[in-house]
Amino acid sequence: MAHKHETPSLDESFDFSPELRKKLIISAIIGIAMVALGAFLIQNHWSIGVWDSGHGAEHAGGAEHGGGDHHGTTLFSRIVANVWMNSVYFLGISVVGVFFLSYNYVAKAGWYTSFKRVPEAFPSFIIVPAIIMLALFLYPDTRHIIFHWTHHGIMEVGSENYDKIIAGKSWYLNFPFFLVRMIAYFAIWYYLWTQIRKYSLLEDETNDLAYYYKSRNFAKMFLIFFAVTSSTAAWDFSMSIDTHWFSTMFGWYHLASWHVAGLAAMMLAILLLKDKGYLKAVTFSSIHDLGKLMFGFSVFWTYVWFSQFLLIFYANLPEETIYFRERFTGHGGRYFAPFIINLLLNFVFPFLILMARDSKRNRMFLKLACGSILIGHWFDFYQIQMPGIAKDQGGIGIIEWGTTLTFASLFIYFVANQLSKANLIAKNHPFIEESLHHDI
Amino acid sequence: MTDKKYIVGIFNDEDVVMDAVQKIRSKGIKIHEVFCPYPVHGLDHALGYERPRMGIPAFLFGITGTCLAFLLTFWTLGVDWPMNIGGKNFFPFPTNIPIVFELTVLLAAFGMSFTFFFMEGLGPSVKPIIFDIRSTDDKFAMAIDLNKNTVSDSEITAFLSEIGAEEVNVKEV
User: Fold this and answer.
1) Which domain holds residue B144?
2) Domain final residue, candidates B120, B141, B157
3) Which of A233, A331, B88, B172 is most exposed, with minimal Cβ within 10 Å?
4) Do B18 and A309 count as a contact with CB atoms less than 8 A apart?
5) How many CB atoms lie within 10 A of CB A158?
6) How many domains, chain B?
7) Does the beta-carbon distance from B94 to A310 stay under 8 Å?
8) Do A313 and B46 touch (CB under 8 A)?
9) Which chain B residue lies closest to A355 (C-alpha atoms)?
């Protein structure tokens, strides 16, 4: 009964203990060590990963400059592909934090206010993938490995590498414009988040409604900017890897993937914090609503994924079907399993498990669904990016686990650090009462 | 008309009616229904309603739609008049999904609506009993069916006034 219960104290601070810091840093280092170990094992023809590429050693020995050679992938390509893929994936989860806040601000929603600080902490991680991605793009070797369109002479008439189709895209895919776009995404996303965060923290101290309106203005700006940049970022970071191919559904598809992964990460963070005794004021009604969003957007992702697939399947144009052909049977069929796992973990499993009302109020079921969605969307980005970058070197083994472990540890470190800097509940937010008494 | 007799307590406030529901139920008096001008959170729990089992008809109607849609596309495109579309085989799985999805949703939605109308006794010619017309405006009306209660008429009336009813009427239908 909504009007009867007592609300717990709103003053909570998250204790980011030195042990936890140490553990996270150590696991990040272990991740890097695992990448090195995996690379060493493959160099020596030993492979203990799942469907690992066995013939890496023939090409191994550092990066070749891919100028004249479009297919010269090496073990290094695989590592670069991993770093790029995880950067894009975790960048998405981070930026969805501010996306989530923004649409709730603009919708004047109140239900999420009690756990608002959790998505608010996510975007602090943007700087890490931003630095890594800029470095990978600025360094010529890695740039050529990731982006086919950056190859020397590919847009010059008369060059032996000349590609008419890619040259036609040179107005958009060129080095200076791409670099400017990348910096603009990272800088503006991050800046708008810092503003929203700043006013949210000021609100805690002064109880002044003016900060709420200021946050709303920044939320509006973010939504307008993100409406465009979520699509262009998807084209830049993921679609331009397969330079010839394009899909008008891709921006949505990419955003849907980011969004549902971000929601699952939020849910998991809230549940873990609740398990540790924090966030007592967050009711299971709010969690239920977040679970509904997760369920809805995992179906939305499937809808967009399938819309893209069906149109290409039905039209049956060779220049479009090549994208799926590459994932079905290309490179020795090594990308077919991730392609299928992607659908199972992102649609079938969460759909069945989150359907019932009770399971959206049950910690264990929610955690299972979160895990499935987070791993599933990792596979989604894997099958988006790997076939274009790592090609016949792709696999899932210690290298992949290691890279992901490093990124995940760093992400948790940044989020936990940000959480520890402020009260865990936005206690003076104008909608906090609504959230505390949220009852569905 | 039959000799159905209801006692209708009129309340002015959401909190009062919530308390009243609990007190009446704890006395062992069965409530026929509470009519409110707007949805009151937690009232369904207080009245002890069971969880709606609408999921069962939804699933059954939905799965019927799925099967019908598969039959339809399979019969028309695969058996009765096979057509070669884009060089694919005659019954490619992905092309059926939009039809299957639409018919599943359609049948589930219609099925749920009609199940609801049927279970609640709603229909074009049915005249609902209006216990108090003000319950559509600003009052909360609690109806108690006397035939289903063993407690005496006057006792209920007295108790209703005691727990905050503004007025207590008797409605015969």
Assistant:
1) 5-48+127-172
2) B120
3) B172
4) no
5) 6
6) 2
7) yes
8) no
9) B55
